[in-house]
Amino acid sequence: MNQDHTSPVSHSSLPDWLRGPRVHGLPALDATAAPPALSFEFFPPRTEALETQLWACVRRLEPLAPHFVSVTYGAGGSTRERTHQTVTRIVSETNLTPAAHLTCVAASQGEVLDVARRYWDAGVRHIVALRGDMPNGDAYAPHPDGFAYAADLVAGLRRIGDFEISVAAYPEMHPTAVSAEDDLDNLKRKLDAGATRAITQYFFDTGVYLRFLDRCLAAGITAPIVPGIMPVSNFAQAAKFSAMCGASVPGWLAQMFEGTEEDAETRRMVAAIVAAEQVRLLRANGIDQFHFYTLNRSDLTYAIAHILGVRPKPANSAAPK
Ligand SMILES: Cc1cc2nc3c(=O)[nH]c(=O)nc-3n(C[C@H](O)[C@H](O)[C@H](O)COP(=O)(O)OP(=O)(O)OC[C@H]3O[C@@H](n4cnc5c(N)ncnc54)[C@H](O)[C@@H]3O)c2cc1C
């Protein structure tokens, strides 16, 4: 074969390499340290096929003995019954500790608290308390007899039971907040009203989250601000959703996924590497709690949990309720 092996691109020489910056890898995970506490978020299934997918995901992740698993509440309360059914099935059929998401939208205070009481009666002791968004992307308007904001819902929940309460936090600011300071004051109000932790909107730029933690601490917040991790299985979809929820998509992330649109296998590998690097960086910065937006798919979450040192537990030693 007559091939021209000379490359048109001129690469650097060994001396160039040695003159360049030295970047050290992430520190190895301490094998003797306790693995981090994980939580997994699911959404209530709309069809039988999605129900099967959800339960396959739950069963796969269950042996990892997460601290809790949460089930979302559709925009405008549209999944009230489906969320309830999913949460109560988790109570009755698994060793998992469920948390039910609950929002203020399109319901009076009495109706929202009735839903919470039903959870309490079903043995559910953890609520993720949210304001929620209007259906169809309409501008938010509180129900005339409703809780206006998540902080009001937290206070309402506190009056009816000793719930563990998680709330939402936004490292890149809630999209409609007047200012970052205002949004931080709001987070503080939610925690002061009785929430025990915040879970963040997902983010891809880890520095943004770490700087947010500094600002939380400076504002007097000491509750855990648990990072929400979104393993990206479909970049185009994630980019579209990020634009709506105010999570920025760095250029390097788009570049990582560029050209993988028709190549599911490479895409999955890239997704795993991106998320693994993110959690390892967070772990190296001392973070020991992680909340995964699973989108009812277990593979990426399971692999990343494994990288974090979390191993399946035998069935009879799952997380205590
Ligand atoms: C971890 C997590 C889970 C989520 N789960 C769901 C879910 O299951 N279902 C769902 O529909 N949505 C969910 N969301 C999305 C959430 O409902 C939206 O982001 C919603 O727009 C805000 O909810 P919040 O609880 O953060 O609201 P809030 O904390 O009430 O804040 C909403 C906005 O109002 C501002 N604000 C607060 N109080 C006041 C006040 N007194 N006066 C003026 N402005 C004020 C805040 O700064 C902010 O801009 C979730 C988000 C996260 C991060």
Q: How is this structure best described in words?
A:
This protein is α/β, with parallel strands linked by helices and 321 residues long. The protein has a single domain (35-311), classed as TIM Barrel, CATH 3.20.20.220. It has helices at 14-19, 48-61, 80-93, 109-121, 150-160, 180-192, 206-218, 235-245, 251-257, 264-284, 299-307, and strands at residues 37-42, 68-71, 98-103, 126-130, 164-169, 197-200, 225-226, 228-229, 289-293. Strand 2, helix 3 and strand 3 form a beta-alpha-beta unit. The longest helix has 21 residues, at 264-284. It is globular and about 70 Å long. The model has no long low-confidence stretch (mean pLDDT 93). The structure holds flavin-adenine dinucleotide. Flavin-adenine dinucleotide is lined by residues 72-73, 75, 101, 103, 128, 130-133, 149-151, 168, 174, 176-177, 182-183, 186, 190, 199, 201, 228.
